[in-house]
Task: structure prediction
Amino acid sequence: MTSATGEAPVRMYHVSKSYMAGQYALHDVSLEVRRGEFVFLTGASGAGKTTLLELIFAAEQPSEGQILVLGRNVARLGAGAIPALRRRVGVVFQDFKLLDDRTVEENVRLALDVVGTPRREARARVFQMLKSVGLQHRRFHHPKSLSGGEQQRVALARALVNEPEILLADEPTGNLDPELTIEIMDLIVSAATRGTTVIVATHDHSLIDRYGKRMLRLEAGRIAEDNPAASAMIGASS
Amino acid sequence: MLISIAFANAFRGVRQASTTSLLAVLTIAVVLVLVGSASLLVENMAGLLDEFGEELQLTAYLDDALGEADLEALGEIVSAAPGVEQVETVTKAEALERFERIAGGAELLVGLEENPLPASIEIKLAPEARTAEGMQILREALEGLPGIAELAHGQEWIEGYARAVSLIRGAAIGIGIVLGLAALLIVANTIRLAFYARRDELDILALVGASRTFVRVPFLLEGTVQGLLGGVVALAVVYGAYELLLPQVRFGLELVLGRAELRFFTPAESFWLVAGGAGLGLLGSMTALVGWRGET
Result:
């Protein structure tokens, strides 16, 4: 575990999550992720990667233990406070979760609409965001007309347009071919270099090897390996 | 800004889920046609009963010894009795005159030395006295009065009338409650279908930090607009049916009752039917949203 800084945006203390009595999706997990740190979360299917991410963006509540996300105790967060937390946490999924009946621009703008950003400002920010992921020319297209890699870039743009302090990605390249995988991962890594704390859940060990970031390996709901040696390579990505 | 987005999202919802929206509008319309028709029927039946009730009266036949001055004085006393709306005094001579008019001549009375018909007081009942109890109180008040020989009243008619009024009012309330609850359930389920069809959108909105209000308000607006449209359609259908059936119904009622004053909803009642649709749509969408926590 990394040393306590008092500012770590994600802190977990003896966190367990159980959906059925006696069966744990996560068991006694303690960890800290520093500001701007990039962490790969790995492990076999069912090891608890998705559950851990869900606890961080308050889609689930821990059964035991405490989770502090951006200084807020998720276990005690009321329903009304969850949206405020989520506006500071961007999330990307393997299946993109885009709205097919809205254009690329409208999909990305959703994150700005919910905080009441004026339309003109929102459009400008969306344009800049799409430009940074190389999709400004596709902003009036619908997701179905885009490739998988492009759809994931749209999802990433939506997750980042509000300048979140934390970016969570659950198997973001699971549906993409190797070339597109690197394209998306480079974009995610670049978010971390701008100060966003990033946690990426992945099966793909080649990515972990390639980027040399901190790696947490989960096994049956427990942290089996926290490889801080890799974190020494922060900033040494391809 | 958020309000304009809410309206835009509500409009988008109606446009994109046009089939489910149409279904919701039609469901609300069908339910309101049933409620509206039942209300109109009950209202008109109650109106007919009210007209009939105005004709219910009690007649006090008087002693022959009573002079015309005494008759007027007794009329004054009777008009102050509980449950009396109006009295009309009928002298012996007026009673004979009426008889002659009705019988088409006085041949039946030829040979009699004097007018056998008694003077009377015809008492019209106040609406609150048109019950068996009201009639009993009035009877007790009148029976002790000097000069009154006999009280003639249609007790059975009165009781029948009171029963009919209470039955129709009760049925109206019962039908209203049952139809209202059924309407709410049907509308809530229809809107819930639309809600599930757009579950992904709601989950994504929750994911990017939309507040519960941001997600819910467009749905509530959508439900209200659907209800409003359903109300307008229902009003049009009930009015069309009323105009279409009015001649036949009026003819039938005139045949049975001798007359029939039927009416459609007043503008205020029409407004409430449409507003009821809007309320139903709003309540339906609120019910559909119960249980959705706004979390992925």
Observations:
- The longest strand of chain A covers residues 10-20.
